[in-house]
Structures are given as C-alpha cells and as structure tokens.
Amino acid sequence: MVTVILLVSLLRPSKSKAPPTLKERIPFVSNTIQYLTDCGTFLDRVSETFKTTNTNIVKFYLAGTPAYIVAGTANVQRMLRTVDSLDGNFLNLLLMDKFWGMSHSEIDKFAQDHSGRGKTALPGTEGTPPEQRIWHSHDQLYVEFLSKHKYIDALADSFYRLFNERLDRQSKDEWQTVEVFRFLQTAMTESAIISLFGSQIVDLNPDIIEAYYAFDRIANKLAWGFPKFVQPKNVAARERLHDMSKRHIDSAWKNFDWDGPDADSVWEPHFGSRLSRETAKWFRERGFSSYAAAGHTLSTLFGLNGNTVPITTWALITITRDPVLLQAVREEAESTYVVDPATGVRRIDPQKLVSLPLLQSIYIEMMRMHVSFNITRRATQQVVIDGYVIPKGAIVQTCAQIAHFEEDVWGVEGHPASEFWAYRHVKVADVVDEKTGEVVGQKKQFAMKGRPSSFFPFGGGHVMCPGRHFAKQEIMLAIAIIVTKFDIEFVEWTELDGTRRERQAEDDRRYAGFVAISPDGDMRIRWKRRW
C-alpha cells in the first residue's frame, strides 16, 4: 500500500494549485488590451511576477483564452520539444488569415494536415498522400532553396552587390551627413527585396518600401485580430502592400518563360530568387489563389526585413559610438576581403565573414538585446509544464525579452546581462605548435555564452524562421561593408522625422513581443568613403 501511494505521488503533477495569475483591473479584459497595445510593459509585469512569486510560469487570459508564459531552461525545452501536444502551427494559421488574407477554404488545406512538417508523417497519419502533406512540402521549399549554400550564397552575392552599389554613390571627396536608420530602411531594404523577389517588384511598385514600413509599424496589431472596423487604417496599410505584392505575382507569371534559359537560374528579374519562383509555382500547383500567394509575399517581406534592418541599425549605433570597438571591427572585417579571380575586384568573402569571432559576438549581442519575440504554441491536449497542468486549448508562450536577459545564463563578472558587451561570446584560446606541443600564441574564437534554449530570436523547436541564415549574412555584410568603406563620425541624436533630440535612441516598445525592436530615434553621422 505504501508503495502504491509513493508511486502515485511521484507520477502526479508536483504542484496541485494553479500557477500564479497575472493581476488585472478588469478581469479577462485588462491584460488582453495591454498585451495587444503595450506588450513591452506587459512582459515587464510578467518578469516582475516571476520574481515576486519565485516561479517560472504565469497564467493570464488572452481574449478569453487561458494563456501561460513559461521561463527557465527546462520549461522552454519542454515546451519546444512537446510536438505531439503543443501545436506550433497555430500562429501560422492565424497569420494566414490576418497577414496573408487567405480564404477559409485555403487555410483549411493547411489546418487539416496533421501529418507534421518532418520527412516522416507523424504517428497516426502515415497514410497521408504526399499532395496533402501541405506543411512538409511547403517547408521543403525553404530546405531546398534557402538552406543550401548554392542559394544562400546567391542571395548574399546579390545583396552584397546591390548594397555596395548604393554605398558607392556616396562621395569619396567630402563628408556627407546621413541618419543611419533612415538610410538602412531604404538601401538595405531595397537590396534585400530585389535579391529575393527580383527587380520587377520595385519597378512595378516604386513606393513599395514606404508601403512596407507603413505596414511594419502596425503589423503586430493586425496579428492577434482586432476586428477590421476597429482598425481601418491598419487594414488599409496591409491591403496597400498586399495589392503591390499581387501586382508583382501577376506580372511575373505573365512575363516569365518557364521553358526558357532562366527556368533553373538562381536569380532573374521577374520572380527574383529560385525560392521566390518555386514558391509561386508551389502555390499555383496546389490550387491556391494569386491573392494567397501575394499574401505569402507580404509575410515574407516582413520576415525579410523585420529583424535585419533594426538589428543592423543597433549594431552600427553601438559600434560607431565606440572608436576602439569600431577600429577592432574594421580590422577584423578587412581580413575577409579577397580578390575575385574572375573580375579582379576586391570584395568580402561571406563565408569568412560569418566566422569572425568579434563580429559574431556583436551580432549575437544585438539579437539578444533587441529581439522581443514570443514563441507561441496551442495545447492540443492536456500537458504538464513545471508541475502545472496546462489544459487543452490553452496558449503557451515563452518570451525572448525575458530569456535573453537571464543573469545566470548571460551574465559575466563586470558585464551583467542587462548591458551590451562586445566580447561576451569571444574566448581566447592558445595556439599550439603541432610538432613541439608548445604554445606559440593566442587567437580569438567565437563561443556562445548562453544555451540554445535561452536564445531564440528566430523562434524555436520545429517552427523556426527559415530565413535566419540569410538574415545573419545580410546583417554582418551590411556592418562590414560600412565600417570598412567609410570613415564615420557621430554628429547627434535625432527623432525619426530628422529633428534634433537630446537623448540617445532607445527601444521602441511598440514592437515588443513580435519582432526585433526598432530604435525610437535615429543617429545622425558624418561619413566619407575611404576608398
């Protein structure tokens, strides 16, 4: 009898009570409103609740649905690995409605596929016909055309060329004044869009960059579904960008020769990259409308620029304000220049660049400190996390804004997790002579300070941003090109409209919980080309 009681006590959840609940003035209402309108402050309250209750799970209600935010390495791992009962497709389906503008019948093609994203269908769905494995075949587009070096390198080469051309328009003979964020929003965004979607999307829509940033500012408000009549301007911003995307899709289908010499090319002007072309083909072959395909383009535009431009801006703001760090980054980046044997032109080797220890460390620090992304799952059956029972239908989240600042994970003596430190992820290793075994010098190496389960700027588990590899190359290329090509001097801080301000730029909390956080101001610099 004692043995039975002992076994029952070991197998049942360790905590019989419900987890701490986030307080709110108006039950079932206040937290929802704050989550949707001021997620930064909402997450600050969650962090404070974790501290005061000494727990790693907090409950609240989101639009009447029970929701749980979890923290701590073990809980995050549990959440990301529980594929059978925590659905990672939930948010994708929501975005198909709110971002892509897909019809309910088109969304159902995804929603009714329960076979998973992996090569092998999930248990119980082994008999699913290949043409009905929508999630898997869609993900395979990214595996094939956004993970293989052939296609990533083509994207990086295109971005490098286009971005370099924009910078070469700057004067070599005199100092010029620019606002960093504003410049990158134009030069970097256009270079990335053309690299992925071709030059025709810009030729057909000359104001697409302005339309994109009008959408970027309100995207998080659309995602969770305020009714259209509550936010007509936000819906109009989405529809404007959606119409541009559809104009591009329709034109590409009309003008691209599928039997011509560009059928297997890595890039051409109509669809752009092979990924863009094959994705458009995939949508059409599976019976999706051009409107749905255009919505996918819109969502990809957001994924393409939502992290890269703000993170590059923060990196340049940080680097150029520290002359010693600027020189160290410049020297490291200059070591990656090679002479192209075909053209004789001196250029950066992207593969060497992404392996640089200091620049990688700065990249990780920028992502750690300025990405506020909530990984979201929905419980398809009851699940236990941290000893608490999460009911079927509940929303479960873990938040980068919280995990990325955990002191016991990221803190170093003299360099707390709350502060930027360029060398947090750099270690110095001995160089040993292979013949004598003697230490003949030292070299810097990149070494990630935190654990993977404490760092998830691109999502986690089986649902991660497929463009993360290109994003890293794009960010590091933009930084390296600018610091090696220009002498740079800080001038002043400005508002986003260009007017002078006294305080330095800070995180724009309107982006919290959804994407990389843009600066709430800009940095005006003077620069002059060095070559």
UniProtKB/TrEMBL annotation:
GO MF, one example: steroid hydroxylase activity
Chain segments annotated as coiled-coil in the UniProt record: none
Top-rank taxon: Eukaryota
Binding site residues for heme: 465
This protein's UniProt keywords: Heme, Iron, Metal-binding, Monooxygenase, Oxidoreductase, Signal
Signal peptide interval: 1-16
Pfam families associated with the record: p450
Membrane-spanning segments: none
Family from the record: Belongs to the cytochrome P450 family.
UniProt protein name: Cytochrome P450
Organism annotation: Bombardia bombarda
Lineage: Eukaryota, Fungi, Dikarya, Ascomycota, Pezizomycotina
